[in-house]
Amino acid sequence: MVRHTTGRRKQEMKKMTNEKNLQVTFSKRKNNIFKKASELSILCDVEIVIIVFSPANKAFAFGNPSVESVLNRYLSENPPPMSGTLQLAEAYRRSNVRNLNSELTQVVNELEAEKKRAEDLRKMRLASQAECWWEKPIEEQSVEELQRFKRALENLRENIAQEAQALEFQSSPQFGTKNDEFDAGFGI
């Protein structure tokens, strides 16, 4: 049985009414947003803090390098002063990071395209095997498939034998083949 799915569907953005689903979705999405924040922090070498409150009013926080250090820096509103040389070095570093991020994005897109292509090829192979079950390696076939394969081969053998008999019957002398007429014309 082949199941056809429509893939992921875009969810309408509105508050969920089912409290259990709300809590489960919050947990999954909270973990995903913390993971993305970690990636952003690593890729762009930035300090980041995310604070979220659950539907049960529990606070969850993620920070890199730590929640306290980033909040203290934000609250103090006095970032450390930079000299001209440090500013130039920082601008150069950010430029390099931007270039590396664009290269990374390109490679990730290519990887996703290749993954999609591999999945499409896998689906095509599975569909082909479903249609042409006899092409599947014997070791991978179930007992039922092997029995069906045996019956198909036996039917094929019977059909070939019947076709051979029909051909022999048509070429028998009692039907007068062209060769018989040719032979009779020359008195052979």
From TrEMBL:
One Pfam family in the UniProt entry: SRF-TF
Keywords on record: Coiled coil, DNA-binding, Nucleus, Transcription, Transcription regulation
Entries under CDD domains matching the protein: MADS_MEF2_like (cd00265)
GO biological process: positive regulation of transcription by RNA polymerase II
Name of this chain's protein: MADS-box domain-containing protein
UniProt-recorded Gene Ontology molecular function terms: DNA-binding transcription factor activity, RNA polymerase II-specific; protein dimerization activity; RNA polymerase II cis-regulatory region sequence-specific DNA binding
Subcellular location per the Swiss-Prot or TrEMBL entry: Nucleus
SMART domains documented for this protein: MADS
Main subcellular location: nucleus
Origin superkingdom: Eukaryota
InterPro entries found in the cross-reference section: MEF2-like_N (IPR033896), TF_MADSbox (IPR002100), TF_MADSbox_sf (IPR036879)
Higher taxonomy: Eukaryota, Viridiplantae, Streptophyta, Embryophyta, Tracheophyta
Record-annotated MADS-box domain positions: 6-66
Coiled coil residues, start to end: 94-170
This protein's GO CC annotations: nucleus
